[in-house]
Automatic annotation (TrEMBL):
<dbReference type="InterPro" id="IPR027417">
    <property type="entry name" value="P-loop_NTPase"/>
</dbReference>
<keyword id="KW-1003">Cell membrane</keyword>
<feature type="domain" description="Polysaccharide chain length determinant N-terminal">
    <location>
        <begin position="12"/>
        <end position="105"/>
    </location>
</feature>
<keyword id="KW-0472">Membrane</keyword>
<dbReference type="Pfam" id="PF02706">
    <property type="entry name" value="Wzz"/>
</dbReference>
<dbReference type="GO" id="GO:0005886">
    <property type="term" value="C:plasma membrane"/>
</dbReference>
<feature type="transmembrane region" description="Helical">
    <location>
        <begin position="435"/>
        <end position="457"/>
    </location>
</feature>
<keyword id="KW-0812">Transmembrane</keyword>
<keyword id="KW-1133">Transmembrane helix</keyword>
<dbReference type="GO" id="GO:0004713">
    <property type="term" value="F:protein tyrosine kinase activity"/>
</dbReference>
<dbReference type="InterPro" id="IPR050445">
    <property type="entry name" value="Bact_polysacc_biosynth/exp"/>
</dbReference>
<keyword id="KW-0175">Coiled coil</keyword>
<feature type="coiled-coil region">
    <location>
        <begin position="293"/>
        <end position="401"/>
    </location>
</feature>
<protein>
    <submittedName>
        <fullName>Chain-length determining protein</fullName>
    </submittedName>
</protein>
<dbReference type="InterPro" id="IPR003856">
    <property type="entry name" value="LPS_length_determ_N"/>
</dbReference>
């Protein structure tokens, strides 16, 4: 909308006129479109075609099946290439050394396509002479080829894979396919060669290290042997030395001797007890086992048999019978004597065992001392053995690595960690230019430009502009209508606002509004607040919730204009709180005035815009009004953070508004949609009598405001 000064009227854009103008000049548009399409088609046909082909390489571990003698087979999944590893391989493929190697292999310096600067045009020579262009021949041929090569090369990682694509563009389709294949070949060769170099370097490094370790192992083992000989720790097995083995043998012998001594003493005691008790000793094992006793027993048995035989024919006093009996007594005496000898033998055997035990105990004590000393000396021996074992283990590890590196130093033993999965083929179709798409795009662009040019010409000439009709407000006879009570309805309401500024005095005067203000629209009030830089405004709604809803719409309209706006709900029906806040039970201005909550806890976001709202709150209004003096400090603090602070007072009178509108420059807004003109005039007069000079009137969208007599007195 534009305004023309002095009796000017607002104008609008005639969209129908714009389209009619384009349709009237349709022949020009068609000719321009066809001409642009023809030019684009011809230009695309004149451009030398470019062909593109692509090779794809899969990055994976390709270790040989057996990496060395005695090694287990390795799988390709043992090594994982992450995103950074694949990106590094992309940079290797774009490296200057690899490209130079490809250029030398394919003799690209002989092709004019890769060194166009070698044959400059006359215009290029003129620009160089005028110092408007740097002489390209100053660069070495390799650098010129490298720069041209890079401009035609594309190397990228295929998304979410370990595949690298090598794409090349050239005027020659065969060359476009040959170069990516050659790059892949050189890349694999360089990777394999790098592995061979690594293995060769490892072999060269390991050779002196192995020789040095062998010498260290020999010295360590020699120290172990010398220490063992010096300390007398001669080994008898893997876990024992001479001292511990001898101690073990003596202990076993001592236990055996003690057992034999105890056995001999027990046998002697048994024989002695049998003799003392007068019991027959021929039942004892030692007596029965004696050969002498056995012969005496046999002689005794023979004599007893003779005595029994002779006693049948001879009397007891017969000399022969007496002689046999005397012999029998002599044999019994010999048996008793022999028994005492056996007892003495057993006692001697026990004494000998005791003496042997004493000797063994002395030897055992001596060996214990030697064994303790040997244990202390074994600490040093074990330290030397550990050192020798560590050196030996390290030597064995180096030997294994050396054999593995040597086995991989031969050709084809270490393949590159990549393989070609798709070779480039000779392309049959050119990748550029795409004649048909270029022609279509050029035709469409020409059509749009032609239409835009025609529309702009119509706008600047004024032919596409039409005046907007402004409804002339009429004087309406005010009818006495009582103010509608404040309702709690939540029915959506589409409201507009309009601005009127009555002059203060005994009779409130209203200033002459311009044409934009006579419709009392929401946009007019928003423009008024923005244009005058109003920071604090107080809204009074004599009609109840409809006026509060209009204030909410005003706040949201200002928020859409990227203004930082906050609304403080002082209404009795908490209509703004219900419309804007997430819940009607949030802490608000009454809680803040009562000192029950922190300042930051009362500010909440609007549900449908970027504006903010401070709800009415849950505290007792009477208690909150005791702290009304703090409201001015709260408003001042909010003006530091917001462009506009709007206080919605609902159906408040002038006396109540005076308590909240103490800040200088506070704008009073009378939000009165669906309110009679008589009521509006009455409210304006009441505020004028209270001393308010400027009042902004809002009457709602689609409803004209009151027509004041002579535009002077309400």
């Amino acid at each position: 909308m534009s305004g023309i000064g002095g009796g000017h009227e607002d104008v609008d854009i005639d969209l129908g006129g714009l389209f009619r103008a384009v349709w009237q000049r349709r022949s020009r548009v068609v000719l321009a479109t066809l001409g642009a399409a023809a030019v684009a088609f011809a230009a695309a046909k004149m451009i030398a075609p470019q062909y593109e082909s692509e090779t794809r390489v899969l990055i994976e571990s390709r270790e040989p099946e057996f990496s060395g003698a005695g090694q287990l087979p390795q799988s390709g999944s043992d090594r994982i290439f992450d995103e950074s590893g694949i990106a590094s391989q992309v940079q290797v493929l774009r490296s200057a050394d690899l490209i130079k190697q490809v250029a030398r292999n394919m003799k690209l310096h002989e092709l004019e396509e890769f060194d166009p600067s070698a044959h400059p045009s006359a215009l290029s020579d003129l620009l160089v002479m005028l110092r408007m262009k740097k002489n390209p021949l100053e660069l070495p041929p390799e650098e010129r080829i490298l720069r041209e090569f890079n401009s035609k090369l594309q190397v990228y990682q295929v998304e979410k894979s370990r595949v690298i694509a090598i794409a090349f563009t050239s005027k020659d389709p065969k060359l476009a396919a040959a170069i990516p294949n050659e790059m892949a070949k050189v890349y694999l060769s360089l990777q394999s060669g790098a592995k061979l170099d690594s293995n060769s370097e490892a072999s060269r490094w390991l050779e002196p290290e192995i020789a040095n370790l062998r010498e260290k192992v020999r010295e360590a083992e020699a120290k172990v042997a010398a220490y063992r000989a010096e300390s007398g720790l001669l080994p008898t097995s893997e876990t024992e030395n001479f001292a511990t083995r001898q101690l073990s043998d003596i202990s076993a012998e001592l236990a055996r001797v003690r057992g034999e001594r105890a056995n001999a003493a027990a046998r002697a005691e048994g024989v002695r007890a049998a003799l003392a008790d007068g019991r027959a000793v021929d039942t004892l094992a030692d007596i029965v086992g004696s050969p002498m006793i056995q012969r005496l027993k046999e002689s005794k048995a023979a004599l007893e048999a003779q005595i029994a035989d002779v006693s049948t024919s001879l009397l007891d006093g017969h000399p022969r019978l007496k002689g046999l009996r005397s012999q029998l007594e002599g044999i019994e005496a010999q048996i008793r004597s022999e028994t005492r000898k056996i007892l003495a033998s057993l006692d001697n055997e026990a004494k000998v065992g005791q003496l042997r035990e004493q000797q063994l105990v002395q030897q055992l004590n001596s060996l214990k001392a030697q064994s303790a000393q040997a244990g202390e000396e074994e600490v040093g021996l074990r330290a030397l053995e550990r050192e020798a074992a560590a050196q030996r283990q390290l030597l064995e590890t180096y030997l294994v690595r050396y054999r593995e590196a040597t086995s991989r130093s031969v050709a084809n033993a270490t393949p590159a960690d990549a393989r070609v999965i798709s070779n480039a083929v000779i392309p049959a179709l050119a990748s550029f230019p795409k004649v048909i798409p270029i022609t279509i795009v050029a035709a469409f662009a020409s059509f749009l430009v032609s239409c835009v040019v025609i529309m702009l010409a119509e706008l600047f000439s004024g032919r596409a502009l039409r005046p907007t009709s402004v409804a002339t407000p009429t004087v309406a006879e005010p009818a006495p209508v009582s103010a509608a009570p404040e309702s709690a309805s939540n029915v959506p309401y589409e409201a507009s606002v309009a601005a009127v500024e009555p002059q203060s005095g005994k009779e409130s005067e209203v200033r002459e509004p311009n044409a934009a203000e006579q419709d009392f629209s929401i946009e007019s009030v928003a423009d008024h607040l923005l244009g005058h830089g109003v920071r604090v405004a107080v809204s009074v709604s004599p009609g109840g919730d409809e006026g509060s809803m209009a204030a909410v719409m005003l706040v949201r309209l200002l928020a859409e204009a990227e203004q930082k706006v906050v609304l403080i709900d002082f209404s009795g029906s908490v209509c703004p709180t219900r419309l804007m806040a997430q819940s009607p039970h949030l802490p608000g201005i009454t809680d803040l005035l009562a000192g029950e909550v922190a300042f930051s806890e009362t500010i909440h976001a609007d549900r449908f815009s970027d504006a903010h709202v401070i709800p009415r709150g849950e505290a007792d209004p009477r208690m909150a009004m005791r702290g009304i003096e703090r409201l001015q400090m709260i408003v001042d603090a909010l003006t530091n953070a917001y462009d506009l602070v709007l206080i919605e007072c609902g159906q408040a009178d002038a006396e109540a508004v005076a308590k909240v509108a103490r800040r200088e420059g506070t704008e009073i807004i009378l939000s009165a949609p669906s309110v009679s003109e008589e009521k509006i005039v009455e409210e304006l007069t009441r505020f004028g009598q209270a001393g308010y000079r400027d009042i902004v009137l809002m009457t709602g969208a689609g409803r004209p405001g009151p027509d004041f007599p002579d535009r002077r007195a309400a």
